[in-house]
Design goal:
Rossmann fold; 2 domains; five-stranded parallel β-sheet; Arc Repressor Mutant, subunit A; alpha/beta; 12 strands; 46% helix
């Protein structure tokens, strides 16, 4: 067999092996839709877990930790919104990317999904290519963040890396996608990292909620109050992970009626 062909086959095998290590939890109450999603994802090499509603999904999460969750919204017993809230009240599941998949097209429903802080929101009927692209994008970002954190692990106790931003005990190496607090790595979702990076690139300057929504969600929001509601859950989750005191915000400060800013250590 020619060397070039062997290399191509080896690369293909490596890609399948990597994909097989990624586990997707699909939460959908319609068996036909579950079967379609499961087949589509398995054809791409993903492992698939299936739950018929939020309560069943939580039982699965107690036993296994998926790499990503795709959840319908309208389901019996526990809907997608309630499942999202439940997963974000437990530190074990905070960093799992969450994609809403629903037939609802009303602007209010889409806005609510964004306000809650979900990583993406896809409307049925969704094209297979769009679903796979969204999943690959979220998983790739998580993999990059984890790899960067692991690569930086040995130097956590030393001085901040060259080019890193340090404020108090918070160190952000935006190039390597590494965030640490008190020398310990902080595991952020891709959305949380993008939000922190936007604030860090404007250190000590207020960034409007509309601009934060634009940077984080790639969504142009013309209503400042709507943008504030969309970005608030992300700020809340980010603060939970980096602030030393949840009742006194040291790093991320709200400037009422304007937006948020990341405060440098010298100005504390």
């Amino acid at each position: 067999m020619p060397i070039s062909r062997r290399k191509r086959l080896l690369r293909t095998g490596q890609e399948v092996t990597r994909a097989m290590k990624e586990m997707i939890l699909v939460v959908e109450d319609h068996p036909d839709m579950t079967a379609v999603l499961k087949l589509a994802l398995e054809m791409e090499g993903y492992q698939v877990l299936a739950a018929a509603d939020g309560l069943e999904a939580l039982r699965i999460l107690e036993r296994l930790t998926p790499d990503l969750i795709v959840a319908d919204i309208m389901m019996p017993r526990m809907n997608g919104y309630e499942l999202y809230e439940a997963t974000h009240q437990d530190n074990r599941w905070l960093s799992i990317p969450f994609i809403f998949l629903t037939a609802k097209t009303d602007k209010e429903d889409i806005r609510l999904g964004k306000e809650m802080g979900a990583d993406d929101y896809l409307v049925k009927p969704v094209e297979k290519e769009d679903l796979i692209a969204a999943i690959r994008g979220k998983l790739k970002r998580v993999t990059e963040l984890k790899a960067a954190a692991e690569a930086a692990q040995e130097g956590l106790e030393g001085p901040a890396p060259k080019g890193a931003l340090k404020t108090g005990e918070l160190i952000m190496d935006l190039d390597r996608h590494v965030v640490t607090v008190k020398g310990q790595p902080v595991h952020l979702t891709p959305t949380e990292f993008e939000l922190l990076a936007c604030l860090a690139n404007n250190l000590d300057f207020v960034v409007s909620c509309q601009e934060l929504v634009k940077q984080v969600h790639k969504y142009h929001c013309n209503d400042e109050s709507e943008a504030r509601e969309i970005i608030r859950p992300h700020i809340k989750n980010l603060r939970r992970k980096i602030e030393p005191d949840p009742t006194h915000f040291t790093y991320i400060v709200n400037v009422r009626g304007v937006g948020y800013k990341l405060v440098s250590h010298l100005s504390l």
